[in-house]
């Protein structure tokens, strides 16, 4: 069993959650209150995280697929496992296609999308072929640089004096309801609920006692970071411009002007975003590979190739970026992802709870006799 | 051209715990017959009557009954020792009792125990042992009728003395460097660490060359697993010859196809001593002044032994500078290509305009321009290394004036490109270890291709691939990016920064974990308490 | 072994990398645009670009012909959409137009009044290479004329204009540098109006557009900033003159550095000697009050600065005299603010964003106002101005007092 330590888990959780999220303005449907949507999503996501951690706490050393099989029986377990493999691969593919298109739109308009995505899938596949440990180490190494990057970005934004906090005013103009409507389930599903894939990795942690604390602290840290950038976009671009912009963060970054020298940093920021995307797509990819390893008995390398090919193939499903975003934000987040992120884990947790409750009752019944 | 100095060496006085497994099997083959003529004939046959093999026969008054043969190779032995210690004892008057013909073994015992004034003497049983002893510079003494002989340590002859190392010069620190002689090298290290726990294990590697390779480590500090692993890998080597430590490096390193070295080498005994104290293992190869060190992590390659002699603040600054220079020498040309041909919007307008003006009239794309200039520089560098000193200055004039100045004036390359290439080259020389700057030299071209195709995204993809490779790399079981990935807070004290000596309480965690404690706590100097 | 598939894949990919460089553009294949102007002729957009000629600008190059060549050149094209006009430009240029360094965008009054800026903003916010920090300017005549004027001391006139704006914004708060992104946000804001400075040419335009003009010390024509154009939604509705634009600056808390000229005494007329007060620091607080359905805006201006120049005779070391001066200055500011507000009301633009303040503080009243046809008419303002003269610089009495003393003996 490959082992990871707590620093690696912290780095991975944070980078994974950052992903491509800062690029988008989640909850912009309610204009200047988008950040409240974010807070609501953050809190709801924390509950979800507690749910996942509860499942894992009761089964140290087992990964998600083993837990599924143990509680739901061989047949249902296998069916669900297949579903989850597909789900993980699909999430990975969403990131692949998304970033390929981001690069096409804002960076290299003439470079073929197929090549960009091929490069990305190959990189992820290379990381996975080296194993869980190496991938977590990669994330660990990237972590300080990424945080430094975001911190530097924050300082540059402050330094160029483009924040207008008054643009956030008139808090909750239309009350709480539209905010909750935005937050549930979209913002939970992306990005907070995606942490479900960590059910595949937590079993590798060498210090099991620290799992809950480390996960929750990393989650809160990254939540605050995402919230910060959400607020920044609103304050820099004005809710009106933010609402019509494809990638608000890129636009905000282009407004940085320091000493007539530092301008137009968006290509650099895209690279920063790529670190998050790379970690997220590789984590899902790895989740799919690890899951598939339970189902079929072929070598890890072959699995990596097979899943990678599937992800690459699937990423051509959407005919264009507009459709890709629409199906992601308007369909998947509302109807499909919650099944995997909320329903099944909740069901599983309920079963575990009942079983352990029964056990306790039995024990209690036995003890007096 | 290295200055050779005559150095008369007396035979090394201290015998070592040598285990010579590789030659044991052969030893059984040809035993000494006891017939001196036959034995000598076979020896002559085996060496093809080589003219430097000297066989000196000493007759006694018993004629053929008792003869003594002294066998050595001219040039490998110390003539002074031969003339003052070996020969006088054998030709001494009272050596053989003229009235009594002693048994050959008795004579041998007398030579060995009474007369021969040489400290290191061993018995030899077979012809092969005789040959290998002679080839190692020892003198073999055979007595007619005896089925065993003795070998006396007389190794010496002309050798380079201990000089200041050429490849790693320091401003502050010891000025001695390793030589080609294994024994001199082990002695240099022993003089720094006078501790019986400094163990040496030897191997003879190379079927034909029979090169002596010594593995040196501090028992109780070095990780036993690493030592065992190194010894096993050494034993696995089956080749005809080992002429330099580079052979060993390629045979035993962890990853065959990696641009990064998983072992490092140094010419400096103090660097080896420091590394041994951290729990590392040194591999010395006879005939090479470059001693290998393992395991090594990437940050060690940016450290010079001088870092530990200078004040910690400047040492920390220099380390950061070296890492930055490494990154610069690897990425600068590719960043230039990516920014000037893909992402012109990053540049400030005035800079863009002046770069554009320079490129006006340059016939090649920036990528080709950069590639050509980089190759030109590498050609110049290679020419400079191999050239005799006298021609070196001509090379630099041709390189600097003709290629730099003229190419810009002729409009073949832009001035900015010359600046970029020059700075890249200089940054490449900052790394204290040649092997790591060579990695940058190779990788630079890969990054240039990526930058020319996909711009900054290509560079980023390349960096991530490189990072994955580095994260997967291990040096004898130790992760290559050690204190950063996996992150070990305690080891940060000697990675990018160097904390003062009084704060370096523990040895590196994974390498020296057997005996982690390095020094007493609370040694931070402070002014005396009682002020008078 | 495992490595073979990788190696084969690598072999397949490497040629791709070597042959493909889809997006690389060499520096010497770019036309770097430093300024753009947009006019409207009948139903066509007329887009004019000012392109930098690098050889003429860089001091030392292989060619060495700097100085003899005009530093910029101008292309003018037209089309039914702005993009089409730009595409048509490539029919006449040898190089690819490169927009990322465009630093100013000049719109003609006609475009801003009749067509509105909606489509222009859409166009400039869309492509990734356009620069959101470019400055927006208006002009009353033909916008493309402005690009032809060569500016002494400067080689890239687009950048020069930007520097003129920056410089005057620092020294004279009535001018404001409006970035494209801020302009877009202001236009979209239902509770505020956008304002854009005017750029004008004074003098003989033809004379200053040839390189010879730079050889004589006196310029035939100069580019200068003029009035302030005010928008209602995306259309230009009027102009504010210098005094009014200062008033807007006061109202919208933008005053950083401004000179106020005032007479010696409160009742002094035009012929009286004048003094200058330099504002160093100023803050304006807007707050709304509702009294019986009437909305009152309280405008609290707090200006601090120094007495910079005076022709009056008075004892400046006397606090009472200073207090009197402060009152006069406050009265001047008050006058500017009130007259500006009256003007804004007549052209019905809410340049300082009063409605925004009301929206924040009294959402109910705002709802009522938003339904009203002329919401600004229902607002009255109540300026409260405090001026503080912090010191009188290096001399503490007017120089003219010395003249008085000399007269006596």
UniProtKB/TrEMBL annotation, chain A:
Keywords: Germination, Membrane, Transmembrane, Transmembrane helix, Transport. Its main location: membrane. InterPro entries: Spore_GerAB. It is found in: Membrane. The chain crosses the membrane at residues 7-28, 34-55, 67-90, 110-129, 141-163, 183-202, 214-237, 268-293, 305-329, 335-354. It is a multi-pass membrane protein. NCBIfam families: 2A0309 (TIGR00912). Belongs to the amino acid-polyamine-organocation (APC) superfamily. Spore germination protein (SGP) (TC 2.A.3.9) family. This is Germination protein GerKB. It comes from Paenibacillus cookii. The lineage of its organism: Bacteria, Bacillati, Bacillota, Bacilli, Bacillales. The gene is grkb2.
TrEMBL record, chain B:
It comes from the Bacteria. Residues 1-28, 512-532 are annotated as: Disordered. Keywords: Membrane, Transmembrane, Transmembrane helix. Signal peptide: none annotated. Residues 514-523 have a biased composition (Basic residues). Pfam families: GerA. The chain crosses the membrane at residues 320-342, 387-406, 412-431, 443-468. Belongs to the GerABKA family. This is Spore germination protein KA. The lineage of its organism: Bacteria, Bacillati, Bacillota, Bacilli, Bacillales.
From TrEMBL, chain C:
It comes from Paenibacillus cookii. It is a lipid-anchor. Belongs to the GerABKC lipoprotein family. NCBIfam families: spore_ger_x_C. It is found in: Membrane. This is Ger(X)C family spore germination protein. Pfam families: Spore_GerAC (PF05504), Spore_GerAC_N (PF25198). Residues 228-392 form the Spore germination GerAC-like C-terminal domain. Keywords: Germination, Lipoprotein, Membrane, Palmitate, Signal. It comes from the Bacteria. Residues 23-200 form the Spore germination protein N-terminal domain. Its main location: membrane.
């Amino acid at each position: 069993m490959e082992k990871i330590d707590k620093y690696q888990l912290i780095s991975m959780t944070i980078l994974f959650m950052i992903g491509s999220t800062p690029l988008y303005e989640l909850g912009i449907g309610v204009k200047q209150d988008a950040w409240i949507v974010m807070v609501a999503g953050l809190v709801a996501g924390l509950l979800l995280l507690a749910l996942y951690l509860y499942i894992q706490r009761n089964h140290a050393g087992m990964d998600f697929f083993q837990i599924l099989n143990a509680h739901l029986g061989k047949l249902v377990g296998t069916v669900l496992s297949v579903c989850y493999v597909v789900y993980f691969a699909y999430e990975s593919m969403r990131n692949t296609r998304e970033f390929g298109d981001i690069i096409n739109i804002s960076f290299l308009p003439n470079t073929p999308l197929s090549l960009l995505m091929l490069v990305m899938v190959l990189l992820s596949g290379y990381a996975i072929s080296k194993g869980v440990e190496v991938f977590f180490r990669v994330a660990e190494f990237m972590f300080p640089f990424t945080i430094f990057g975001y911190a530097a970005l924050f300082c540059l934004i402050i330094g160029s004096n483009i924040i207008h906090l008054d643009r956030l005013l008139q808090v909750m103009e239309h009350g709480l309801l539209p905010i909750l409507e935005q937050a549930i389930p979209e913002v939970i599903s992306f990005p907070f609920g995606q942490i479900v894939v960590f059910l595949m990795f937590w079993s590798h942690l060498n210090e099991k006692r620290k799992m809950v604390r480390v996960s929750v602290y990393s989650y809160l840290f990254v939540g605050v970071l995402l919230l910060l950038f959400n607020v920044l976009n609103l304050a820099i671009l004005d809710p009106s411009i933010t609402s019509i912009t494809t990638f608000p963060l890129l636009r905000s970054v282009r407004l940085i002007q320091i000493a007539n020298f530092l301008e137009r940093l968006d290509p650099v920021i895209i690279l920063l975003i790529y670190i998050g995307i790379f970690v997220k797509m590789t984590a899902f990819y790895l989740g799919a590979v690890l899951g598939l390893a339970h189902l079929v008995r072929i070598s890890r390398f072959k699995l990596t190739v097979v899943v990678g090919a599937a992800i690459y193939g699937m990423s051509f499903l959407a005919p264009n970026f507009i459709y890709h975003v629409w199906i992601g934000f308007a369909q998947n987040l509302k109807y499909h992802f919650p099944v995997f992120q909320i329903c099944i884990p909740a069901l599983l947790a309920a079963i575990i709870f009942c079983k352990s409750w029964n056990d306790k009752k039995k024990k209690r019944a036995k003890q007096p006799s | 051209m290295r200055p050779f100095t005559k150095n008369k060496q007396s035979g090394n006085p201290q015998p070592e715990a040598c285990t010579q497994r590789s030659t044991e099997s052969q030893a059984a083959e040809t035993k000494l017959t006891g017939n001196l003529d036959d034995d000598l004939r076979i020896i002559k046959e085996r060496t093809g009557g080589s003219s430097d093999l000297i066989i000196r026969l000493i007759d006694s008054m018993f004629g053929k009954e008792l003869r003594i043969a002294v066998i050595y190779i001219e040039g490998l032995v110390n003539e002074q020792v031969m003339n003052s210690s070996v020969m006088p004892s054998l030709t001494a008057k009272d050596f053989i009792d003229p009235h009594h013909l002693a048994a050959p073994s008795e004579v041998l015992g007398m030579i060995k125990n009474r007369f021969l004034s040489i400290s290191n003497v061993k018995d030899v049983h077979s012809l092969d042992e005789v040959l290998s002893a002679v080839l190692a510079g020892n003198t073999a003494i055979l007595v007619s009728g005896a089925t065993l002989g003795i070998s006396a340590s007389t190794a010496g002859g002309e050798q380079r003395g201990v000089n200041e190392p050429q490849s790693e010069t320091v401003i502050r620190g010891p000025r001695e460097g390793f030589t080609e002689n294994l024994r001199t090298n082990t002695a240099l290290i022993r003089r720094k660490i006078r501790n019986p726990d400094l163990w040496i294990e030897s191997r003879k590697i190379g079927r034909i060359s029979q090169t002596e390779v010594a593995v040196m480590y501090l028992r109780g500090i070095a990780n036993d697993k690493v030592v065992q692993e190194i010894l096993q890998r050494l034993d696995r080597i089956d080749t005809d010859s080992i002429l330099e430590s580079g052979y060993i490096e390629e045979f035993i390193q962890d990853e065959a196809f990696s641009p990064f070295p998983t072992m490092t080498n140094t010419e400096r005994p103090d660097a080896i001593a420091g590394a041994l104290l951290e729990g590392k293992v040194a591999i010395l190869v006879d005939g090479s002044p470059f001693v290998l060190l393992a395991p090594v992590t990437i940050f060690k390659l940016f450290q010079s032994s001088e870092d530990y002699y200078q004040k910690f603040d400047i040492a920390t600054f220099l380390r950061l500078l070296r890492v930055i220079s490494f990154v610069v020498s690897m990425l600068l040309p590719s960043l230039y290509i990516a920014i000037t041909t893909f992402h012109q919007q990053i540049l400030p307008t005035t800079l863009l305009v002046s770069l554009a003006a320079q490129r006006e009239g340059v016939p090649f794309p920036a990528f080709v321009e950069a590639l050509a200039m980089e190759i030109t520089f590498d050609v110049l560098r290679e020419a400079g290394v191999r050239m005799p000193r006298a021609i070196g200055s001509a090379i630099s004039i041709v390189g600097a004036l003709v290629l730099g100045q003229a190419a810009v004036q002729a409009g073949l390359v832009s001035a900015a490109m010359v600046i970029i290439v020059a700075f890249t080259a200089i940054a490449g020389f900052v790394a204290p270890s040649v092997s790591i700057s060579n990695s940058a030299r190779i990788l630079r071209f890969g990054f240039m291709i990526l930058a020319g195709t996909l711009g900054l995204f290509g560079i980023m993809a390349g960096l991530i691939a490189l990072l994955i490779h580095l994260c997967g790399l291990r040096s004898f079981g130790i992760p290559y990016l050690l204190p950063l990935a996996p992150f070990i807070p305690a080891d940060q004290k000697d990675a990018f920064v160097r904390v003062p000596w009084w704060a370096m309480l523990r040895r590196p965690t994974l390498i020296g974990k057997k005996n982690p404690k390095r020094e007493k706590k609370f040694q931070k100097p402070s002014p005396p308490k009682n002020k008078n | 072994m495992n490595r073979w598939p990788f190696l084969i894949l690598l072999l397949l990919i490497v040629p791709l990398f070597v042959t493909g460089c889809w997006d690389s553009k060499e520096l010497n294949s770019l036309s770097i645009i430093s300024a753009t102007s947009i006019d409207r002729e009948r139903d066509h957009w007329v887009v004019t670009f000012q392109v930098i000629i690098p050889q003429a600008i860089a001091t030392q190059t292989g060619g060495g012909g700097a100085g003899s060549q005009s530093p910029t050149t101008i292309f003018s094209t037209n089309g039914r959409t702005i993009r089409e006009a730009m595409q048509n430009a490539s029919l006449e240029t040898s190089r690819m137009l490169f927009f990322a360094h465009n630093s100013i965008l000049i719109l003609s009054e006609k475009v801003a009044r009749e067509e509105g800026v909606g489509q222009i903003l859409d166009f400039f916010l869309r492509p990734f290479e356009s620069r959101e920090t470019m400055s927006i300017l208006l002009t009353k005549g033909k916008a493309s004329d402005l690009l032809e004027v060569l500016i002494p001391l400067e080689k890239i006139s687009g950048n020069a204009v930007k520097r003129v704006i920056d410089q005057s914004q620092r020294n004279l708060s009535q001018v404001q540098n409006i970035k494209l992104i801020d302009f877009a946000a202001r236009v979209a804001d239902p509770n505020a109006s956008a304002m854009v400075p005017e750029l004008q040419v004074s003098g003989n335009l033809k004379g200053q557009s040839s390189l010879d003009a730079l050889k004589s010390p006196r310029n035939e024509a100069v580019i200068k900033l003029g009035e302030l154009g005010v928008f209602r939604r995306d259309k230009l509705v009027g102009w504010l003159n210098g005094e009014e634009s200062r008033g807007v600056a006061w109202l919208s808390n933008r005053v950083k550095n401004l000179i106020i000229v005032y007479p010696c005494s409160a009742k002094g007329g035009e012929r009286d000697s004048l003094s200058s007060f330099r504002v160093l620091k100023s803050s304006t607080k807007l707050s709304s009050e509702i009294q019986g359905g009437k909305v009152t805006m309280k405008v609290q201006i707090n200006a601090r600065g120094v007495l910079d120049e005076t022709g009056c005779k008075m004892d400046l070391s006397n606090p009472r005299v200073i207090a009197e001066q402060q009152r006069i200055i406050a009265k001047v500011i008050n006058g500017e603010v009130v007259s500006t507000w009256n003007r804004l009301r007549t052209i019905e633009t809410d340049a300082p964003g009063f409605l925004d303040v009301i929206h924040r503080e009294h959402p109910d009243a705002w709802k009522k106002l938003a339904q009203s046809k002329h919401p600004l008419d229902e607002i009255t303002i109540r300026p409260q101005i405090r001026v503080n003269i912090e010191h009188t610089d290096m001399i503490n009495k007017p120089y003219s007092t010395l003249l008085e003393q000399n007269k006596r003996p």
